[in-house]
Amino acid sequence: LDLSNCSLHTVPPGLAKATTAIVLDLTENPLTALPNGSFLGFVHLQSLAVPLTLECPGGSDAWQDVTVDRSSRLCQGQRNPCNSSVELAWSCPENSVCAPDGPGLVQCLCDNPFHGYKCLREGTFPMLLFGGILGTATVSLSLLLWGTQRRKAKTP
After folding, report:
1. Do you know which Gene3D superfamilies this protein is assigned to (predicted)?
2. Range of the domain at 45
């Protein structure tokens, strides 16, 4: 994806949809900063060129090779922060595993059959029970309101 020399002052919002990009060039743009999370989901990104004034997203530890030339910084070979030997080893809660989510970013995914907050619930989400209770409450409230409010709605 070549976005070089596009007069970008900020990262375009549509860039978030290009998570399958492997090579991205942002050089020759007046970018002042890369907001946190700009590359969320970019797990396939292997080569990123940014203006010299900017650092590689996730820092130099998120990349295997950072090369600087006279006008740009080239970040190559995105590292997996989950199996890194760096002192910032990411820890996920019990019943979950670490998964990369972009340069220097991680997410914790629940192991099967766990789900919910901190992967503490076992089994599948009780969809039938949830839908039944929600449907019953909605129908009951609708009938109650219809019964109490219909006398106020006079027909001409």
Report:
1. Ribonuclease Inhibitor
2. 13-78
